[in-house]
Amino acid sequence: MSDAGRRPGAEVAAYWDGKYRGGGALWGDAPSELAAIAVARLGELGPAAAAALTLLDLGCGYGRDAVTLWDALRLSVVGVDGAARAIEMARAARPAQATIEYRLADLGDLGDPGDLGDAGEIGRPPAARPPERFDVVYCSNVYHLLDPAGRAALRATVSGHLASGGLFFMSTLSHRDPRHAGRGRPAPGEPDSWVEQTYLHLCRRDELERDFGFLRLERLDEIAYLEPRPEGAPHDHVSWIVVGRAR
């Protein structure tokens, strides 16, 4: 962890790789709150239309939401994460018939619309690939892990890979989150940013409205929920839910 609290994408990936290697499936197998919201919203399209969708899961972790989304909707999913152990776990747990592909990539350094990860599964180096466009871009509990440059890179990735008229789903911690707000030391020069075990940036409404102004926002509200843990008591959180549509 850098002294200023900034965690470039590679550092974030290394931190979470260590967490996954030490703790395995850190949140169990139950889907996140955002997954339930996305399944309900996309399910409104009907089974055939939902199954025709392509979805990019940024920060897929060990694949719990990717599998949930595929299982409920039968859409095609590309999951991307910077933690090598998470991708190993996700690939090992992928149902045999699932239309899910997992790629290793540094989320904090994404920004080139043609680069969505390692070429191990897709057979061509990033420079040879045209930008991929997805009907849905999905990002659960990743944005608050990234420093300002990493957040800008993630927004560029969303803009570069979301198809015209496509839907974006994101959850990120609120500045009113009871577990992390004011915990640790403030990150110098970064309001609502704290360093405890890791760097966290807690968002406010006006910031999200500004940063995701390139989308037509359909939903921006806070939810309180309990985050499950395989061991110990669940954590109470307050997060923003962002649903937007590409213009």
List keywords for this structure.
single chain, 247 residues, alpha/beta, Rossmann fold, 3-stranded antiparallel beta sheet, disordered N terminus
What does this 3D model show about the protein?
By secondary structure, the protein is an alpha/beta fold. It has one domain: Rossmann fold. Helices cover 29% and strands 28% of the residues. A 7-stranded mixed sheet has the order 3-2-1-4-5-10-9, with helices on both faces. Strands 6-7-8 form a 3-stranded antiparallel sheet, with no helix packed on it. Helix 2 packs parallel to helix 4. The termini are far apart. The relative contact order is 0.16.
Strand and helix map with partners:
Elements: H1 9-23, H2 33-43, H3 47-51, E1 54-58, H4 64-73, E2 76-81, H5 84-93, E3 100-104, E4 134-140, H6 148-161, E5 162-173, E6 185-186, E7 193-195, E8 199-201, H7 205-211, E9 215-227, E10 235-246
Parallel strand pairs: 1-2, 1-4, 2-3, 4-5
Antiparallel strand pairs: 5-10, 6-7, 7-8, 9-10
CATH class: Alpha Beta
Series of secondary-structure elements, N-terminal to C-terminal: HHHEHEHEEHEEEEHEE
What would you give as the CATH superfamily? Vaccinia Virus protein VP39
Let me know the largest β-sheet. 7 strands, mixed
Give a short overview.
With 247 residues, the protein is α/β, with parallel strands linked by helices.
